[in-house]
Amino acid sequence: NFDPNRFAQLPAARLNASFEMQGQLKPSPTLFGRFQLRDSRLGDQPLLGHGEIDLSGDHLRKANIDLAAAGNRLTAQGAFGKPGDRLVLRIAAPRLAPFGLAGDVDGQLVLSGSVQSPEIDANLRSTRLAASQVGEIHGLELLVRLGAGEQGVLAGNLRLETLAGAKGEVLLQNVRLTADGSRSRHRV
Fold this sequence. Notes:
This protein is mainly β. It is built from no helices and 14 strands. The protein has strands spanning 13-14, 17-24, 30-42, 45-56, 59-69, 72-80, 86-93, 102-103, 105-113, 118-131, 135-146, 154-165, 170-181, 186-187. The chain is flat.
């Protein structure tokens, strides 16, 4: 019955979980952990999830995380840091109100390559994303592709219909940003 709201300004929650962690800092950091959420709630919504992470230095050997709350889902599957590794992070969040936000977010991030030269393929969309003390975004679309090495592809598109401040004042409207080329030679 742990409630993180007792320690920080977060939505009310009741967390029940079992977890296991082991690792070491030297000669190189390693960490293995797994968790299972059960009989948990975020606000008045059920919160479910499980996960496993295996990290050795800068190599994420395995990630398998699946969280679901209030009709929203966050997953991470795969590995990252060595040739042939691929880590896929996915968010499908059509209902953000239980998290103190308004709107929706949907996207995917695929990481491959190494920490020194990552390859990234990402997309993110939101029809509306709002936080009362911060402001509001409408019509967000982001596509990014970054290849490995100096000659790796660099491509991206950002579209934003409106960015408004906390009082509703329009700060930006109809923003379009594109990038193409390679890491070493590109145009924005």
